[in-house]
Design brief:
Radius of gyration: 18 Å
CATH topology: Alpha-Beta Plaits
CATH superfamily: RRM (RNA recognition motif) domain
Distance between the termini: 49 Å
Strand content: 25-35%
Helix content: 40-55%
Largest sheet: 4 strands, antiparallel
Number of helices: 4
Strand order of the largest sheet: 2-3-1-6
Length: 111
């Protein structure tokens, strides 16, 4: 009986870990650099939605001034949609600026 209870207690944790890894799938998240400072998250989402379902589009802002830092992140529902957006949008013009669009890499990979 104790073994069964122990297994049941662990089961939700395993499910929670699976859900988290699906939500934070790095292959489905892209970095977008060289954004115009006037660009909005809504405009970014509209541009990237041409390539698939965008879960989230965020432009990073300075925490003190609130001004755009000129880059952001777009999260797609599927990794293949992210790859298509990278292939199609990297180097293209968006609001007068040449976009840099790359797959998000973990901090460890960047160093």
């Amino acid at each position: 009986m104790e073994e069964e209870n122990h297994q049941e207690e662990n089961a939700p944790e395993e499910n929670d870990q699976q859900e988290t890894s699906q939500e934070e799938n790095p292959a489905a998240k892209v970095f977008v650099g060289n954004l115009a400072f006037s660009a909005t998250s809504e405009e970014l989402k509209a541009e990237f939605s041409k390539f698939g379902e965008v879960i989230e589009a965020v432009i990073i802002k300075d925490k003190f001034s609130g001004r755009s830092k000129g880059f952001g992140f777009v999260t797609f529902s599927k990794p293949e949609e992210a790859k298509k957006a990278i292939d199609e949008l990297n180097g293209t013009d968006f609001q007068g600026r040449k976009l840099t669009v790359n797959e998000v890499r973990s901090r460890e990979e960047r160093h």
